[in-house]
C-alpha cells in the first residue's frame, strides 16, 4: 500500500464528506477510493470513518488523524522539493479570503499560475474564520486581530474603507455631516462576526465607535456593495469595491475627515514547519500583491488623502 497516497485520499474524503466526491476530485473510481481508505484503516488497525448507506462521518480517531496526516503530506512534499524541485511549485493550495480580497486576488492570480504551470489554487471566499486544519485550508487571510494563538500569523497589509451612499439616496434622505447624524439614516451592515451594530471610525488621533440601527445586515461584502448601489442606504465598503464607484460618481464618500478605522490584514496558517514550496510561493505572491496597492501598504495613510492621490 502507498501510505502517502492513502493519506491523501483519506484527507480528501474527510474534506468532502463523500467517497464519490473525493473520487471525482482525485480522478479515481469510487471503489478505488473506498479500497484505499479501508487499506489505511487496516494498516493502522483502527476505524477512521463511520459509514452508512446515507452518511459518512469521522470517528474520533479519524479526527485526530487529520493533523498528523497533513504533517506527513507536507513533509513528503518538502522532501521532494528539497531534492531538486525548488523553483517550480506544484500541487494545490487552498486559500481562504474575504470577498473583496478574493476579487482583488482573482484579477492577479493568472501571473502566478503562468509562472508555476503545475500549481493550482482553490480560492475560497469566506467572511468568518475557518478551522484551517480540520477543513484542509493551507492559508487564510483575516481582517482584524487574531485571538487563536495556535496559528502562525503574519501581517501583510491594512484595510482601507469608505463610508458611502448613492447620490439618489442622499438627495432623498440628506447628507450626514457628522458621525452622530448616522443614527437618522438607513445603514447597511457588513457582518463578519462580532458586533454588527457598531461602526468604528478613526481620524488618526481618536477612535469613535458609533452605534447604528441597521435596516439591512449582510454577511457578504459584495452583497453589501450591490445593496448600496441600489440605494438601500449607507454602508462601509472596502476600497477594493468602493473606489471605482467613487471615481465615477456612482457613490459618494461621506465624512472623509473621520473615515472608518483601518484593520490589519493578517495571513494565518497552521504551521511554518515543513511548509511545502507551493504554499511558500503563494504566500510570497500574496504579500507582493498587497504591496502593489498603496491603500493596503501603510497603517497611517488616511483614506481621504489616499483617494486624492488616486484621482
From TrEMBL:
Keywords: DNA-binding, Transcription, Transcription regulation. Pfam families: HTH_1, LysR_substrate. GO terms for molecular function: DNA binding; DNA-binding transcription factor activity. It comes from the Bacteria. The keyword Repeat does not apply. Residues 1-59 form the HTH lysR-type domain. PANTHER family: HTH-TYPE TRANSCRIPTIONAL ACTIVATOR TTDR-RELATED, HTH-TYPE TRANSCRIPTIONAL REGULATOR. Belongs to the LysR transcriptional regulatory family. This is Transcriptional regulator, LysR family. The lineage of its organism: Bacteria, Pseudomonadati, Pseudomonadota, Alphaproteobacteria, Hyphomicrobiales.
Amino acid at each position: 500500500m502507498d501510505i502517502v497516497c492513502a493519506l491523501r485520499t483519506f484527507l480528501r474524503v474527510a474534506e468532502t464528506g463523500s467517497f464519490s466526491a473525493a473520487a471525482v476530485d482525485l480522478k479515481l473510481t469510487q471503489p478505488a477510493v473506498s479500497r484505499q481508505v479501508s487499506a489505511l484503516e487496516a494498516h493502522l488497525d483502527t476505524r477512521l470513518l463511520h459509514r452508512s448507506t446515507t452518511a459518512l462521518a469521522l470517528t474520533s480517531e479519524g479526527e485526530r488523524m487529520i493533523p498528523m496526516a497533513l504533517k506527513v503530506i507536507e513533509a513528503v512534499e518538502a522532501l521532494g522539493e528539497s531534492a531538486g524541485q525548488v523553483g517550480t511549485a506544484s500541487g494545490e493550495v487552498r486559500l481562504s479570503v474575504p470577498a473583496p480580497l478574493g476579487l482583488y486576488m482573482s484579477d492577479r492570480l493568472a501571473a502566478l499560475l503562468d509562472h508555476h504551470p503545475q500549481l493550482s489554487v482553490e480560492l475560497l471566499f469566506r467572511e468568518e474564520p475557518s478551522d484551517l486544519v480540520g477543513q484542509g485550508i493551507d492559508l487564510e487571510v483575516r481582517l482584524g486581530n487574531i485571538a487563536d494563538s495556535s496559528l502562525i500569523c503574519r501581517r501583510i497589509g491594512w484595510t482601507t474603507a469608505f463610508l458611502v451612499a448613492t447620490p439618489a439616496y442622499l438627495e432623498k434622505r440628506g447628507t450626514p455631516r457628522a458621525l452622530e447624524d448616522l443614527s437618522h439614516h438607513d445603514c447597511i451592515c457588513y457582518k463578519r462576526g462580532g458586533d454588527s451594530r457598531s461602526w468604528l471610525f478613526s481620524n488618526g488621533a481618536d477612535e469613535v465607535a458609533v452605534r447604528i440601527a441597521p435596516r439591512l445586515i449582510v454577511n457578504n461584502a459584495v452583497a453589501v456593495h450591490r445593496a448600496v448601489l441600489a440605494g438601500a442606504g449607507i454602508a462601509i465598503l472596502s476600497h477594493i469595491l468602493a473606489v471605482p464607484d467613487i471615481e465615477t460618481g456612482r457613490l459618494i464618500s461621506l465624512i472623509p475627515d473621520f473615515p472608518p478605522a483601518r484593520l490589519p490584514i493578517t495571513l494565518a496558517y497552521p504551521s511554518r514547519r515543513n511548509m511545502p514550496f507551493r504554499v511558500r510561493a503563494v504566500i510570497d505572491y500574496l504579500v507582493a500583491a498587497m504591496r502593489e496597492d498603496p491603500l493596503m501598504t501603510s497603517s497611517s495613510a488616511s483614506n481621504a488623502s489616499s483617494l486624492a492621490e488616486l484621482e
